[in-house]
Each structure stands twice: as C-alpha cells, then as structure tokens.
C-alpha cells in the first residue's frame, strides 16, 4: 500500500509488483493480518482527512508521526474480505454505468444530428 506524503499528501494506491518509489511516497504495511483492498478502500475513504493532517504552506507534507497516528480500523479478515466484495461490486456497477452513459451520449449526439438534418422522418 502506497501513501503520498508530499505535494498532494493522502493519495493511496496499491502496488502489485515490486517498484521503486521516491521519497514523496510512503509504504504502509500494517502489523495485523489484513486484506490489501480493504486497507485501500479504508484509506481512500480517509484521503481528505489525511490531507488535512498534513503540514506546510505551498508544499504540504505528512511526517512519520502523523502517519503512525492515523487510526486504522482493522476488523477480522473475513469481515474485510466481505466488505471488499461488496465495494468491488459497487465499483463494477459504477464502471458499467459510466460505459453505458458514454454510449447513450454518443447515441444522443448521432440521433440529434440525424434529426436536425432531416435524415429521420417523424410523423
């Protein structure tokens, strides 16, 4: 789990492979048994709160103490897995909605053009 600590602190991402990171990113590894996606959703939900904990004027930063003080709720692993299944399903539905919304916009644009050019006869 990656957390930005400088610039725009509080953004989270999952690294599925070994990667090189720069000093504006922190690696989060809880001591407890956890589901990576659960931790991602949890921290993603807290992004604004985490950002507001950051310090600095133009360039905001999080330090190690601030990160360690973030209260992360880690329920039993089975609960985490069930929660992730529900949240993943919602993400799938959102993706479908966006896909069909884009298609509907395209159909509307095409139909509008044909109607306004008189290519479709209405009675």
Biggest beta-sheet profile: 3 strands, antiparallel
The fold-level CATH name of the largest domain is Adenine-n6-DNA-methyltransferase TaqI, Chain A, domain 2
| SSE string, helices as H and strands as E | EEEEHHEHH
- Separate helix tally: 4
Strand content: 5-15%
Q: Termini distance?
A: 60 Å
Question: Which CATH C-level class of the largest domain is it?
Answer: Alpha Beta
Strand order of the largest sheet: 3-1-4
Shape: elongated
Average pLDDT score = 90
Total strand segments: 5
Radius of gyration, in angstroms, nearest whole number: 22 Å
CATH architecture label of the largest domain: Alpha-Beta Complex
SS class: mainly alpha
What order do the helices and strands come in, and which of them pair?
Layout lengths: L1 E3 L1 E2 L4 E2 L11 E3 L8 H10 L1 H7 L6 E2 L2 H5 L8 H40 L7
Antiparallel strand pairs: 1-3, 1-4, 2-5
């Amino acid at each position: 789990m990656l957390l930005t600590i400088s610039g725009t602190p509080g953004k989270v991402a999952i690294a599925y492979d070994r990667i090189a990171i720069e000093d504006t990113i922190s690696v989060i590894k809880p001591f407890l048994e956890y589901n990576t996606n659960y931790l991602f959703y949890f921290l993603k939900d807290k992004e604004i709160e985490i950002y507001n904990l950051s310090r600095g004027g133009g360039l905001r930063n999080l330090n190690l103490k601030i990160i360690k003080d973030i209260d992360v709720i880690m329920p039993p692993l089975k609960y985490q897995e069930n929660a992730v299944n529900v949240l993943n399903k919602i993400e799938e539905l959102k993706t479908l909605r966006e896909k069909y919304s884009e298609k509907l916009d395209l159909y509307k644009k095409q139909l509008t053009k044909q109607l306004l050019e008189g290519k479709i006869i209405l009675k």
